[in-house]
Protein backbone atom coordinates (compact mmCIF):
# COMPACT_ATOMS: atom_id res chain seq x y z
CA UNK A 1 0.00 0.00 0.00
CA UNK A 2 1.05 3.63 -0.26
CA UNK A 3 4.03 4.53 1.86
CA UNK A 4 4.25 7.58 4.06
CA UNK A 5 6.80 10.19 2.97
CA UNK A 6 8.85 9.48 6.11
CA UNK A 7 9.06 5.71 5.61
CA UNK A 8 12.63 4.41 6.10
CA UNK A 9 12.44 2.52 2.76
CA UNK A 10 11.63 5.68 0.81
CA UNK A 11 14.65 6.92 -1.15
CA UNK A 12 15.63 10.58 -1.02
CA UNK A 13 14.67 13.21 -3.57
CA UNK A 14 17.09 12.10 -6.30
CA UNK A 15 16.38 8.43 -5.66
CA UNK A 16 12.65 9.02 -6.14
CA UNK A 17 13.33 11.08 -9.26
CA UNK A 18 15.41 8.25 -10.78
CA UNK A 19 12.70 5.76 -9.80
CA UNK A 20 9.99 7.92 -11.41
CA UNK A 21 11.94 8.31 -14.65
CA UNK A 22 12.64 4.57 -14.81
CA UNK A 23 8.95 3.77 -14.30
CA UNK A 24 7.93 6.10 -17.13
CA UNK A 25 10.49 4.55 -19.48
CA UNK A 26 9.28 1.06 -18.54
CA UNK A 27 5.54 1.80 -18.79
CA UNK A 28 5.42 4.07 -21.85
CA UNK A 29 6.78 2.62 -25.09
CA UNK A 30 6.76 6.14 -26.58
CA UNK A 31 9.23 7.45 -23.97
CA UNK A 32 12.62 7.84 -25.63
CA UNK A 33 14.80 9.26 -22.86
CA UNK A 34 14.97 10.39 -19.26
CA UNK A 35 15.29 13.99 -20.45
CA UNK A 36 12.09 13.71 -22.49
CA UNK A 37 10.20 12.34 -19.47
CA UNK A 38 11.73 14.90 -17.11
CA UNK A 39 10.76 17.84 -19.29
CA UNK A 40 7.67 16.70 -21.15
CA UNK A 41 5.49 14.34 -19.12
CA UNK A 42 2.60 16.17 -17.44
CA UNK A 43 1.60 13.13 -15.38
CA UNK A 44 5.06 13.06 -13.80
CA UNK A 45 4.95 16.82 -13.21
CA UNK A 46 1.58 16.46 -11.48
CA UNK A 47 2.90 13.71 -9.20
CA UNK A 48 5.99 15.76 -8.32
CA UNK A 49 3.82 18.78 -7.52
CA UNK A 50 1.58 16.54 -5.41
CA UNK A 51 4.52 15.46 -3.27
CA UNK A 52 5.13 19.09 -2.41
CA UNK A 53 1.47 19.96 -1.83
CA UNK A 54 0.92 16.82 0.28
CA UNK A 55 3.75 17.85 2.60
CA UNK A 56 2.31 21.35 2.86
CA UNK A 57 -1.17 19.90 3.54
CA UNK A 58 0.17 17.90 6.48
CA UNK A 59 1.61 20.99 8.19
CA UNK A 60 -0.50 23.23 10.41
CA UNK A 61 -1.50 26.51 8.80
CA UNK A 62 -0.40 25.61 5.25
CA UNK A 63 -3.56 24.02 3.83
CA UNK A 64 -4.50 27.12 1.83
CA UNK A 65 -0.99 27.32 0.36
CA UNK A 66 -1.19 23.60 -0.48
CA UNK A 67 -4.49 24.15 -2.32
CA UNK A 68 -3.12 27.16 -4.23
CA UNK A 69 -0.01 25.27 -5.36
CA UNK A 70 -2.14 22.24 -6.33
CA UNK A 71 -4.45 24.46 -8.41
CA UNK A 72 -1.45 25.99 -10.17
CA UNK A 73 -0.16 22.48 -10.92
CA UNK A 74 -3.63 21.60 -12.24
CA UNK A 75 -3.49 24.65 -14.53
CA UNK A 76 -0.08 23.58 -15.86
CA UNK A 77 -0.68 19.83 -16.21
CA UNK A 78 -4.42 19.21 -16.61
CA UNK A 79 -4.20 16.76 -13.68
CA UNK A 80 -5.99 17.56 -10.42
CA UNK A 81 -4.68 15.80 -7.32
CA UNK A 82 -5.99 17.05 -3.99
CA UNK A 83 -3.14 17.70 -1.55
CA UNK A 84 -4.80 15.40 1.00
CA UNK A 85 -4.68 12.35 -1.30
CA UNK A 86 -2.14 9.64 -0.50
CA UNK A 87 -0.12 8.41 -3.50
CA UNK A 88 2.33 5.50 -3.41
CA UNK A 89 5.59 4.92 -5.24
CA UNK A 90 6.14 4.10 -8.91
CA UNK A 91 2.73 5.45 -9.88
CA UNK A 92 2.57 6.46 -13.55
CA UNK A 93 -0.08 8.76 -15.00
CA UNK A 94 0.01 8.26 -18.79
CA UNK A 95 -1.10 11.30 -20.80
CA UNK A 96 -2.70 12.71 -17.66
CA UNK A 97 -5.23 15.18 -18.99
CA UNK A 98 -8.46 15.09 -17.01
CA UNK A 99 -7.26 12.87 -14.15
CA UNK A 100 -8.93 13.82 -10.84
CA UNK A 101 -7.88 12.33 -7.50
CA UNK A 102 -9.95 13.40 -4.47
CA UNK A 103 -8.89 14.37 -0.97
CA UNK A 104 -9.35 11.05 0.84
CA UNK A 105 -8.26 8.84 -2.07
CA UNK A 106 -5.39 6.42 -1.55
CA UNK A 107 -3.37 5.11 -4.50
CA UNK A 108 -0.99 2.23 -3.83
CA UNK A 109 2.38 1.43 -5.36
CA UNK A 110 2.96 0.49 -9.02
CA UNK A 111 -0.41 1.81 -10.21
CA UNK A 112 -0.89 2.79 -13.86
CA UNK A 113 -3.45 5.56 -14.45
CA UNK A 114 -4.58 6.58 -17.95
CA UNK A 115 -6.12 9.92 -18.93
CA UNK A 116 -9.58 10.92 -17.77
CA UNK A 117 -9.62 8.73 -14.65
CA UNK A 118 -11.61 10.04 -11.67
CA UNK A 119 -11.16 8.87 -8.09
CA UNK A 120 -14.14 10.82 -6.81
CA UNK A 121 -16.43 11.10 -3.84
CA UNK A 122 -20.16 10.72 -3.55
CA UNK A 123 -22.15 13.07 -1.38
CA UNK A 124 -21.00 15.70 1.08
CA UNK A 125 -20.20 13.48 4.05
CA UNK A 126 -17.00 13.95 6.04
CA UNK A 127 -14.41 11.23 6.53
CA UNK A 128 -13.40 8.65 3.94
CA UNK A 129 -15.37 9.40 0.78
CA UNK A 130 -12.98 8.54 -2.07
CA UNK A 131 -11.63 5.23 -3.42
CA UNK A 132 -8.69 3.20 -2.20
CA UNK A 133 -6.69 1.66 -5.04
CA UNK A 134 -4.33 -1.04 -3.87
CA UNK A 135 -0.94 -1.95 -5.40
CA UNK A 136 -0.40 -3.12 -9.00
CA UNK A 137 -3.71 -1.84 -10.37
CA UNK A 138 -4.37 -0.57 -13.90
CA UNK A 139 -7.01 2.17 -14.29
CA UNK A 140 -8.17 2.42 -17.91
CA UNK A 141 -8.85 5.69 -19.73
CA UNK A 142 -11.96 7.47 -18.53
CA UNK A 143 -12.65 5.10 -15.63
CA UNK A 144 -14.72 6.61 -12.82
CA UNK A 145 -14.27 5.15 -9.34
CA UNK A 146 -16.75 6.78 -6.99
CA UNK A 147 -17.17 6.66 -3.23
CA UNK A 148 -15.30 4.93 -0.40
CA UNK A 149 -14.66 1.71 -2.32
CA UNK A 150 -11.56 -0.49 -2.49
CA UNK A 151 -10.04 -1.88 -5.67
CA UNK A 152 -7.97 -4.93 -4.74
CA UNK A 153 -4.35 -5.53 -5.61
CA UNK A 154 -3.55 -6.67 -9.15
CA UNK A 155 -6.91 -5.59 -10.57
CA UNK A 156 -7.64 -3.89 -13.89
CA UNK A 157 -10.42 -1.35 -14.40
CA UNK A 158 -11.54 -1.08 -18.03
CA UNK A 159 -11.82 2.12 -20.01
CA UNK A 160 -14.89 4.21 -19.15
CA UNK A 161 -16.03 1.81 -16.41
CA UNK A 162 -18.13 3.36 -13.66
CA UNK A 163 -17.15 1.57 -10.45
CA UNK A 164 -19.41 1.95 -7.41
CA UNK A 165 -18.58 -1.22 -5.43
CA UNK A 166 -15.52 -2.90 -3.96
CA UNK A 167 -13.50 -5.33 -6.05
CA UNK A 168 -11.41 -8.14 -4.56
CA UNK A 169 -7.76 -8.61 -5.56
CA UNK A 170 -7.06 -9.70 -9.14
CA UNK A 171 -10.37 -8.53 -10.54
CA UNK A 172 -11.33 -7.33 -14.00
CA UNK A 173 -13.83 -4.48 -13.65
CA UNK A 174 -15.72 -3.30 -16.74
CA UNK A 175 -18.98 -1.70 -17.79
CA UNK A 176 -21.52 0.92 -16.75
CA UNK A 177 -22.25 0.20 -13.97
CA UNK A 178 -19.12 -1.90 -13.61
CA UNK A 179 -19.26 -5.66 -13.23
CA UNK A 180 -16.50 -7.35 -11.23
CA UNK A 181 -15.05 -10.63 -12.54
CA UNK A 182 -11.89 -12.58 -11.74
CA UNK A 183 -8.92 -11.42 -13.78
CA UNK A 184 -8.02 -14.52 -15.81
CA UNK A 185 -4.61 -13.44 -17.08
CA UNK A 186 -2.86 -11.83 -14.11
CA UNK A 187 -0.21 -9.52 -15.43
CA UNK A 188 1.23 -6.58 -13.49
CA UNK A 189 0.23 -3.43 -15.39
UniProtKB/TrEMBL annotation:
Q: Which GO terms describe its molecular function?
A: serine O-acetyltransferase activity
Q: What is the lineage of its organism?
A: Bacteria, Bacillati, Actinomycetota, Actinomycetes, Micrococcales
Keywords carried by this UniProt record: Acyltransferase, Amino-acid biosynthesis, Cysteine biosynthesis, Transferase
Q: What protein am I looking at?
A: Serine acetyltransferase
By its UniProt entry, which PANTHER family does this protein fall under? SERINE ACETYLTRANSFERASE
Q: Which CDD domains match?
A: LbH_SAT
- Pathway the protein takes part in: Amino-acid biosynthesis; L-cysteine biosynthesis; L-cysteine from L-serine: step 1/2
Q: Which reaction does it catalyse?
A: L-serine + acetyl-CoA = O-acetyl-L-serine + CoA
Q: Which domain of life is it from?
A: Bacteria
